[in-house]
Backbone:
């Protein structure tokens, strides 16, 4: 900006203020100042409180034994008469994934409820356990499940790749519970995330053969790791475990967070670590604090976010590897700390992760409105994920949502407005869950948007 002009305008502003103050002194009147009403965030209630105590043993023959104790407290007003859990390893057995050459083997040894043996039904990824006595409000039960499994090859997130084992969604996971509706458990999808859990505390005892190192959601992982240990993690939606055979690792410390990068190609690893560190710094200063002192990034065949740890497909073009790395890191805020149900409102965390990745990569520049690579038929971005084909899923959930959000932020002032919004969003909704309606209510409040016509074209607002 030209200095002379800014000096002139400063003088003008000061003069106006003085005139206004003098006028007010001479003409005292009742205050007509419009006070911005306070905004009360409304988080969705999870309906249950869950703590997990998991023991995992990996045997030399690459099979795993698990003893899971899960304490479930009913925090809803309903009486609950049966439990429904996600049990995703079952999606990769011969029965449910006949196309896999090396499917998973899964065997449930026993299920107990409050120390007495229980019947159960396992269908696809749904484990149903009837309760002999209703679980009343604020009452707790202890579920004990003992099982063993092997990992499939070419699975989806839950998979073995070369000599490395990726344990995603490997234990029975408790869904959220919606009053008067029941367990919020939808059918498994081989796209996006069809599972939704609330923030929980975990204790994990593990034992792995020598030559392997374990890399987990916990912020206290060491390298190389011990072959047996107990970890505890608080306030996370899930626990991911990677068991890697003699991995390569490079690390960098940024803002007291140790960033560790595992098994990336040598040609890209320095650049990927650099981008990871810089984006972590940017997101911490722009959005809010990253909640752990360690962030792990593991090369894999797909990009995916978990609390404290992400996987990245490191085989693509270097540009794509960097974008994917930053995108998965952005999820530590949008998914990891602020929760939304990825079956119904996947666009919220995917749209924000995509948008903030662009924001970071643009440096200090504004992001110009851009055209989507393909012309999309009108369809909302907030339909349940089973209503999109595989291709549509990424176009509407990632593409359309980030594109439309960018247009709105640009209309209301661009980068600064976007960054301010993100900071407020984080401080308002951290460790809460929100849905489309609540997100839009907050966005309208923060930006002073009065009409819904910014959203009509791409969101279904009931
Ligand atoms: Zn994502």
Residues:
């Amino acid at each position: 900006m030209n200095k002379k002009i800014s000096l002139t305008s400063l003088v003008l502003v000061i003069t106006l203020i003085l005139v206004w103050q003098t006028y007010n002194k001479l003409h005292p009147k009742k205050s007509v100042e419009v006070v911005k009403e306070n905004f009360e965030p409304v988080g969705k209630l999870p309906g249950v409180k869950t703590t997990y105590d998991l023991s995992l043993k990996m045997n030399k023959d690459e099979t795993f034994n698990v003893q899971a104790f899960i304490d479930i407290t009913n925090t809803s007003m309903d009486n609950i008469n049966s439990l429904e859990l996600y049990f995703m390893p079952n999606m990769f057995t011969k029965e449910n994934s006949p196309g896999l050459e090396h499917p998973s083997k899964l065997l449930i040894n026993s299920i107990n409820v409050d120390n007495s043996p229980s019947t159960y039904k396992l269908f696809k990824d749904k484990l149903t356990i009837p309760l002999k006595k209703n679980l009343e409000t604020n009452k707790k039960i202890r579920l004990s499940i003992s099982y063993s499994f092997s990992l499939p090859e070419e699975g989806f997130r839950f998979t073995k790749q070369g000599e490395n084992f990726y344990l995603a969604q490997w234990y029975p996971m408790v869904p959220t519970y919606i009053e008067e509706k029941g367990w919020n458990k939808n059918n498994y999808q081989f796209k996006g995330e069809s599972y939704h859990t609330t923030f929980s505390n975990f204790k994990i005892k593990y034992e792995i053969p020598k030559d392997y190192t374990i890399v987990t959601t916990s912020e206290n992982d060491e390298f190389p790791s011990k072959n047996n240990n107990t970890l505890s993690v608080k306030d996370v939606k899930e626990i991911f475990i990677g068991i890697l055979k003699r991995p390569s690792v490079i690390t960098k410390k940024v803002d007291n967070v140790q960033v560790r990068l595992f098994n990336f190609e040598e040609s890209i690893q320095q650049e990927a670590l650099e981008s990871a560190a810089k984006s972590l710094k940017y997101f911490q200063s722009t959005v809010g604090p990253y909640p752990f002192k360690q962030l792990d990034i593991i090369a894999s065949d797909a990009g995916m976010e978990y609390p404290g740890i992400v996987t990245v497909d490191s085989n693509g073009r270097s540009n794509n590897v960097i974008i994917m790395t930053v995108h998965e890191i952005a999820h530590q805020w949008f998914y990891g700390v602020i929760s939304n149900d990825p079956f119904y409102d996947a666009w919220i965390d995917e749209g924000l992760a995509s948008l903030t990745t662009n924001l970071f990569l643009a440096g200090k520049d504004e992001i110009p409105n851009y055209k989507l690579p393909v012309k999309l038929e009108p369809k909302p971005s907030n339909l349940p994920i089973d209503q999109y084909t595989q291709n549509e899923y990424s176009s509407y959930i990632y593409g359309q949502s980030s594109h439309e959000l960018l247009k709105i932020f640009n209309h209301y002032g661009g980068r600064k407005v976007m960054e301010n919004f993100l900071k407020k969003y984080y401080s308002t909704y951290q460790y809460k869950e929100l849905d489309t309606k609540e997100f839009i209510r907050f966005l309208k409040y923060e930006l002073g948007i009065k009409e819904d016509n910014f959203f009509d074209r791409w969101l279904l607002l009931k």
Q: What stands out?
A: Confidence is low (pLDDT under 50) at residues 1-32. The CA atoms of residues 369 and 407 lie 6 Å apart.
